[in-house]
Amino acid sequence: KQEVTQIPAALSVPEGENLVLNCSFTDSAIYNLQWFRQDPGKGLTSLLLIQSSQREQTSGRLNASLDKSSGRSTLYIAASQPGDSATYLCAVRLNSGNTPLVFGKGTRLSVIA
Amino acid sequence: SAVISQKPSRDICQRGTSLTIQCQVDSQVTMMFWYRQQPGQSLTLIATANQGSEATYESGFVIDKFPISRPNLTFSTLTVSNMSPEDSSIYLCSAGTSVSPANTGELFFGEGSRLTVL
How far is CA A88 from CA A73, B22, B118, in A? Predict the structure, then answer.
């Protein structure tokens, strides 16, 4: 059974810092991996999608990497801002068919002005 | 991408009642799923909503408690039956299109429906 772990569970940084969020998964035979952002009491916003054949994806100040063989992904946030404060969730899909995402428990990020 | 609308966005319900949550997607999708997020927790899959057939439930979730309909490729409902305070959660609909040359297989989420059961 696929399990997804995110470290750290919570993180507090001063504004302007670069930071890294970690995600690991037990079954390396994934099809793709998504990073999401969730604001308190809200739904999920998809940030980045990495296919299993890709090594990284970038969107603005966000960069996600994937090392499928070791079962790890990282989300790098450059020059953090207070507006980045949210919970960041990592999730994986096992195949290309009608399969859901399996989620980690998330990292709660606070960026202090 | 797919835009997903859920109704209601929030509700306060009495113990023993039932509530139906609607999920509408702005385009035809092949995949629809329902998740539950209990306070302070991550997302747990309730079931896969199958178009034109019975939903596929995860361990710990049963059809009598969480009946699901999916009459077409853009709409699904989740009913939370005979509610108790333990059902107080955010319920999220997720949708996307299976991987093809034209689709990445990315999954999208609605804003969620926050249920409080008294």
Answer: 13, 26, 30
Contact yes or no for B114 and A100 at CB 8 A: no
* Among candidate residues A19, A22, A18, the one with its CA nearest the CA of residue A8: A22
Average pLDDT over residues B6-12: 97
What is the rounded distance in angstroms from the CA atom of residue B37 to the CA atom of residue A39?
A: 13
Cβ contacts of A31 on chain B, cutoff 8 Å: 99, 105
Could you tell me if B61 lies within 8 Å of chain A, comparing CB atoms? no
Closest to A99 in 3D by CA, of B10, B58, B6: B58
Q: Band of the pLDDT at A19, cuts 50, 70, 90?
A: very high
- Please tell me whether residue B85 adopts helix, strand or coil conformation: helix
Task: Tell if the CB–CB gap between A100 and B94 is shorter than 8 Å.
Answer: yes
Strands A62-67 and A102-103: unpaired
Contacts of B106 in chain A (CB under 8 A): 32, 34, 46, 49
Residue B73 at interface with chain A, using a CB cutoff of 8 Å? no
A59 near A112, Cβ under 8 Å?
Answer: no
**Model pLDDT for residues A48-93, shown as the tens digit of each residue:** 999 999 999 999 999 999 999 999 999 999 999 999 999 999 999 9
Q: Tens of pLDDT along B61-111?
A: 999 999 999 999 999 999 999 999 999 999 999 999 877 766 778 899 999
Lookup: tokens for A81: 């801002």
